């Protein structure tokens, strides 16, 4: 067979910074009288396994090595480890090295040997802070793709569960995997997702999943509704897969992308199924009421306070009886920005100072703004209710979509009164109805097109 040893070595040294970067190693060996080069990243290789492999190579006699005419013969007899492949394409060889695999080029063989001896720095599979469960599993995805697929396979032991893998990004060559169950997942949707990922022409996926979604979706920049659902919980992903849907896992990201997704999927939570039937339905009802409340509470109050909606004597306390320096509409807009500013501040605040931030934000700023006459207690109360109710929505993306809808309705109410609010609400509903998922399905499915069997499973916690 053709000897391509010198060609491989020359190309690898030409493309990779061998000798210019300390963490990329070229190890020269003499195995049974034949020259051999091994290439790997020092920080991503299992030292103990590498030591055992090399020690075994030094025991091979020349007469034994001469009997191996190809890489496959050598692998069968001398490399007793899993994850061994052969490769002839130099680009794939280079990508394998950069991915943390070990490439072995032997004089006399026409193929390079690729050994998966990778090890990654990884944190524990602890429960994600944003998706804590009262009684559910306490594990969560990490930044290593292989670990995440293992967490899924631990729960779904179906032989039809498949993970397809792709390299995305001209610079990063990030591993992206599509998971689905054959026979349950829609083949046309699978083909559409696969074609979109294969056709991506991006330089990098340095921020992982969101970069991938934006590259695939190519949706309108003024449409705030999330086209996919994110989660860091393996049990949520497994439930999604058993419904015949797809999951996309991106290496270096602890977040799974679930699709296709409709608006009703965001109303579900893992605790709905870990708790008793009636309790789960009660939680889902509270979540639905909160979603409607955070959308309409402040616009309705603005209409009431400005006399556009009559109220009974019992609700007269909602109408401000004292003067105020800032119009009510501007009060709500300022408070919308102020709450988000406090959220951003809390993200950058060390845990030890978190309580101090809460005291400053809630007591000093809130009390002073009322005493100074900038705000009235009713507007602060409404925004406090909205801010607290928004935490029942686990999807931050949908939470901000509802926020933008609420601000648009507020603007309509402030300019044109009740008819302006209705027009803004109608615009939001039209935008919602015209939105499509990443695979082209309706965002309002199973309401449009109507499918009661599917809809009742999304609106209510039904028995399995």
Distance between the termini: 59 Å
Question: What's the order of the H and E elements?
Answer: HEEHHHEHEEHEEHHEHEEHHHHHHH
Detail the poorly predicted runs: none
Overall SS class: alpha+beta
Share in β-strands:
5-15%
What shape does the CA trace take?
A: elongated
Tell me about the biggest sheet?
5 strands, antiparallel
User: What proportion of the residues is helical, as a percent range?
Assistant: 40-55%
| Rg from alpha-carbon coordinates | 29 Å
Description:
The protein is 47% helix and 12% strand. The chain has 16 helices and ten strands. The chain has three domains: 5-115, no CATH class; 129-261, no CATH class; 272-454, no CATH class. With 464 residues, it is an alpha+beta fold. Helix 6 (145-155) crosses helix 9 (234-241). The relative contact order is 0.08. The model has no long low-confidence stretch (mean pLDDT 86). The strands form two sheets. Strands 1-2-4-5-3 form a five-stranded antiparallel sheet, sandwiched between helices. A five-stranded antiparallel sheet has the order 6-7-9-10-8, sandwiched between helices. The chain has helices at 5-15, 47-57, 62-66, 71-78, 90-98, 145-155, 187-198, 209-217, 234-241, 271-274, 277-305, 328-347, 354-371, 377-390, 396-434, 452-459, and strands spanning 24-31, 34-41, 84-87, 102-106, 112-115, 161-168, 174-181, 229-231, 246-250, 256-259. The chain is elongated, with a radius of gyration of 29 Å.
């Amino acid at each position: 067979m053709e000897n391509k040893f010198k060609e491989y070595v020359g190309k690898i040294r030409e493309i990779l910074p061998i000798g210019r970067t300390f963490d990329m190693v070229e190890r020269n060996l003499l195995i049974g009288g034949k020259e051999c080069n091994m290439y790997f990243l020092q920080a991503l290789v299992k030292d103990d396994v590498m030591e055992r492999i090399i020690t075994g190579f030094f025991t091979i006699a020349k007469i034994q090595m001469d009997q191996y005419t190809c890489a496959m013969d050598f692998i069968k007899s001398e490399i007793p480890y899993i994850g061994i492949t052969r490769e002839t394409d130099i680009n794939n060889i280079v990508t394998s090295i950069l991915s943390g695999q070990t490439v072995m080029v032997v004089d006399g063989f026409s193929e390079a040997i690729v050994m998966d001896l990778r090890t990654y720095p990884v944190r524990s599979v602890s429960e994600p802070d944003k998706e804590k469960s009262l009684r559910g599993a306490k594990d969560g995805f990490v930044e290593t793709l292989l670990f995440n697929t293992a967490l899924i396979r631990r729960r779904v032991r179906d032989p039809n569960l498949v993970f397809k893998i792709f390299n995305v990004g001209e610079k990063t060559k990030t591993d992206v995997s599509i998971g689905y169950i054959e026979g349950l997942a829609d083949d046309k949707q699978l083909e559409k997702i696969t074609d979109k990922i294969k056709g991506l022409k991006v330089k990098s996926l340095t921020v992982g999943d969101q970069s991938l979604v934006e590259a695939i979706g190519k949706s309108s920049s003024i449409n705030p509704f999330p086209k996919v659902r994110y989660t860091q919980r393996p049990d949520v992903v497994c439930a999604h897969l058993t419904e015949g849907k797809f999951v996309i896992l991106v290496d270096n990201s602890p977040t799974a992308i679930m699709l296709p997704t409709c608006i009703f999927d965001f109303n579900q939570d893992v605790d709905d199924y870990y708790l008793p039937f009636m309790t789960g339905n009660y939680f889902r009802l509270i979540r639905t009421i909160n979603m409607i409340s955070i959308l309409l509470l402040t616009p309705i109050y603005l209409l009431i306070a400005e006399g556009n909606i009559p109220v009974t004597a019992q609700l007269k306390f909602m109408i401000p009886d004292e003067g105020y320096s800032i119009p009510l509409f501007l009060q709500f807009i300022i408070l919308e920005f102020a709450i988000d500013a406090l959220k951003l501040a809390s993200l950058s605040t060390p845990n030890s100072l978190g309580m101090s931030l809460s005291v400053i934000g809630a007591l000093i700023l809130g009390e002073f703004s009322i005493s100074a006459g900038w705000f009235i207690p009713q507007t602060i109360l409404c925004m406090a209710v909205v801010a607290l109710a928004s935490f029942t929505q686990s999807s931050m993306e949908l939470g901000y979509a509802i926020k933008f809808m609420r601000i648009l309705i507020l603007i309509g109410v402030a300019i044109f009164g009740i008819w302006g609010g209705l027009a803004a609400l109608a615009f939001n509903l039209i935008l919602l109805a015209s939105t499509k998922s990443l695979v082209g399905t309706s965002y309002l499915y199973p309401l449009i097109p109507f499918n009661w069997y599917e809809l009742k499973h999304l609106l209510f916690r039904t028995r399995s």
